[in-house]
Amino acid sequence: MSRKNVAKRPKLAREGVGGRLHYFVERAFTNIRQNLPVNLLTIGTISLAFLILSLALLIFVNLERVTETWSDRVQVTAYFEGDLSPGDLSTLKARIKAIKGTADIDYVSREEALQRFSGRLKGQEALLEGVSYEILPSSLEIHLKKDNRDSEAVSRYVAQLKKIPLITEVQYGEEWVKRFSHFMNLVRFAGILVAGFIVLAVVFIVANTIKLTIYARKDELELMGLVGATRLFIKVPFLIEGVVQGVVGASVALLVLTGVYLAFLHNADFFFSFNTIEAGLLFLPASHIVALLFGGAALGFLGSLASLKRFISL
Amino acid sequence: MIQLHNVYMSYQGDGAALSNVTLKIAKGEFVFLTGVSGAGKSTLLKLLYGALQPTRGQVVIDGVNVSKLPSSQLPFLRRKVGVVFQDFKLLSNRSVLENVALTLEVLGWGKKDINKRVYHILKQMGLEHKLNSTPLRLSGGEQQRIALARALVNEPKIILADEPTGNLDEESREKVLSILKEANIRGSTVVIATHDRRLIESSHKRLIVLDKGHIVEDSDES
Ligand SMILES: Nc1ncnc2c1ncn2[C@@H]1O[C@H](COP(=O)(O)OP(=O)(O)OP(=O)(O)O)[C@@H](O)[C@H]1O
Ligand SMILES: [Mg+2]
Questions:
Q1: What are the b/e assignments for B58-80, b being 16+ CB within 10 Å?
Q2: So what's the ipTM on this one?
């Protein structure tokens, strides 16, 4: 049977992975352009969701910083009798350094202790007249690493410290540390709870928005199948579209957040009038920004994938 | 090219839309399928492009048993079959050009070749000036010809047309028929489902009549 076939395979322009990918990306962007209103709606929704998320993240990051500065007050003081020879002092410091959790150590000699003491008695220095510094002990003030400032870690640390023979007494404001670490746990728990709810809401909203936009185009999905498109061929442009929506949505959210930050928040000392903090709020660290963008991409991808599963049954 | 053996088809719960249909259509044939509304014409065509699976029986297209075809192979069957759907299924968010191009895009054609080929076929349909309109701004008859163009553009081995002349005036109907005949001459097997008596009578081609899902007449067999 003679079949003069005009359509007999002209050169396929898209051989190879590169060519196909190029086609898919082009197709995805054409789709976005052709379905602009729906896409804008989706991107808008994603932006709003991510704005709430990133705002919560911003508050959380700053709260963390505040509590961190507070926790700098967690300090362990080790007292010993008399003054130590420089040699003894350095071996002692080395032993303390070896305990896990030590950040840095300050030596406070007896003279210094007296000076500090009289400093606190401003205007009543007369009380100290004739008092020799020898009645005061010398001490080492130890700062702990950030992860070792909750009450359990501190008491573990102190137990270690007490094993060192030269040290006669250890003080660390036990009550305060306990209350502080209790408060920290509360903040963390509330933070995780709130963050969890927000993330859940964001996932739910974004996934459903994407599902609706894909549902609006189920005719297209059906027809592609009917003209002989493989599942992959139908899906890939939609997945790229989802990733683009996610990344653009997250970017818009971050831009708005930056705007809000620059306009109101960066010098909002009133926000945390807790004295310890210098001034204003920090912006999100780069790692968080990257994570948000990746989160947007992943959410767009997975949202599209899950929705497509429901509509492509061929 | 097309073979059906004792095919039964029933939609969930309903009675049989097709029952005991046995049918053979050879390569290069031109066949009309007719019958009253609800007789099962569209159902039969759907079996031929794998939109439905028969409840019982075998459907073999171009040597491939559709009822046993894994779903991953279905796209490759469909590339051999051009379908004009009764409801057109044109995408309203794409231009006429893009609608017709879809068939070729799926095959992996390059943009230049696609544009050339689509222009060519639209010219055949007398619609080359509508290249950039959207289907919603076309008349029913024009939409039908776009649907036809999309089915024919890759010169498939088999062409299935469900009421391809439903919305057309005398002149366009003749035009559509001659385009289908031309495709047939170039080697495509053509099956047309239609109510259109005049279309059938003016063509002198094989006629299969369905009634309540049974083949009640086949001009080839009598
Ligand atoms: N999706 C469906 N679900 C259930 N029943 C269906 C479905 N499609 C068709 N039917 C039934 O199957 C039978 C045959 O329908 P079909 O569409 O094949 O008829 P037809 O001959 O194409 O009619 P028409 O000339 O009106 O297009 C009818 O009784 C119809 O009600
Ligand atoms: Mg029908």
A1: ebbbeebebbebeeeebbebbbb
A2: 0.91
